[in-house]
Amino acid sequence: MQGLAVLAGSLAQKPGHGGHTWVFLQYLLGFRRLGWDVLFLDRLEPEMCRGAAGRPCPLEDSTALRYFLEVMRRFGLSESFALAYRGERFVGLSRGQVIERVRNSAILLNVMGFFNDEDILAAAPLRAFLDIDPGFGQMWQDLGQSTLFRGHDRYVTIGENIGQPACEIPTCGIDWVTTPQPVCLEHWPRSDGDPGGPITSIASWRGDWAPVPYRGKTYGLRVHEFRKFVELPRRTGRRFELALDIHPTEVNDLALLDANRWVRVDPRRVANDPWAYPDYIRRSAAEFMVAKNMYVASRSGWFSDRSICYLASGRPVLAQDTGFGHLYPTGEGLLTFTTLEEAVGAVQALKSDYAGHARAARAIAAEYFDSDKVLTRLLGKLGVG
Q1: Which of 126, 137, 169, 232 is the most exposed place for a label (fewest CB within 10 A)?
Q2: Whole-model pTM above 0.85?
Q3: Which domains can be identified in the chain, with CATH numbers?
C-alpha cells in the first residue's frame, strides 16, 4: 500500500444522480488502482433525509442512506467510509476510528469544502480544498460573501486557467494547483458506438447556484448558454437527446426546446445510478456539451467530468469552448464550438468520419484524463509521495 488517501464530499445528498456519484468514484477507484488505501467521508443532515414518497423520514428509512450504502457496497468500499449524521452519529466507521485513520493519512481532499467536522479535518497532516465548480466560490469570496476556502493547507481546482491573464476568475490570493478530473479507465471500457444514434447531453438547466454579478458583468448558468444553440437539432436534422434536470415551471424554455426538436428524457430514468449512467453514455453516438455561462465567460478552462466519461467510452464530444483549447487536442474526437454555426460544423464533421473520431476520443481520455496519470501528477504537485 502507498498509504491512505481520504476523499470527502457530498455523495449521499444526491441519490439517483449517477453522474454526480461518478465524480467521487473516479478519485476513490483511481487512488485504489495506484495502490492507495482509501477512505470516503460524507455527511447528512435531517432535512436531507426523505423517503421514497419525498416526505421527511428518519435516517434509516431515507433514500439517501440506502443509495449511499448500495454504492459503497457494490464498489467494494463497505469498509472504507464514514457518513456523519447531524455531526454526532456515524454510519460506517465510528468518529474515533475516522480521526485515527485521518491522522495516519497522507492527504485529505475535501471536495468544495463540504465536510466540516473540524476535529476530523484538523487530524489530517495535509488537507486540500478540491474546487470542482470554479468561479462561483472565488467570486463570492472576493465580494466578501463567503469564506468557503478557509481552513485548508492547499487548494486544488479544475479551472485550469485560474491565475492566467485571460481568466477572469479571481485567485483570492491563493496559489491554486490546477488539475483535470480523472477517469478510472478500467471502469469505462471503449465500445463501438452507433454513428446514427442520438447525440446526447446529461445536464441540469440551472443547477444549485444563482448568477453572480461581479465587476460589472453577470456570470450565469447553463440555461444562459444553451439558448444560444437551441436551433441545432432543427438546423442539422440529427436526433439530439437531453437527459435534462429542468423544473416543470420553466414552461417557456420547455416550449423552446420542443419547438426545436430536442428529445427530452428523464435523467432519473436513464442516469439514476452509477450503473445506468455509463449504459446511457454507451447508447449515445456522441455528447453535446454546453457549459455554464460562468465557465465560458470567465475563460476558466473547465472541462466536464461527463465529457471525460464519453471520451473514455469511445464517444466523440462536441464541447463548448471554455478556454481549454491550449490544454487538450481538439478537432478529432473532441470538437469545439463557440457559435451556433461552429456547432453545426462540428455535427457535420462528426458525420464525415465517425469511426475516426471515436478512436480519437478514447485516445484523448487515455492520454490526458487517465486516473493513473492525473492523480500521480496531482500528488506530485502537492508534494505527496
Answers
A1: 126
A2: yes
A3: 4-182+371-381 (3.40.50), 185-368 (3.40.50.2000)
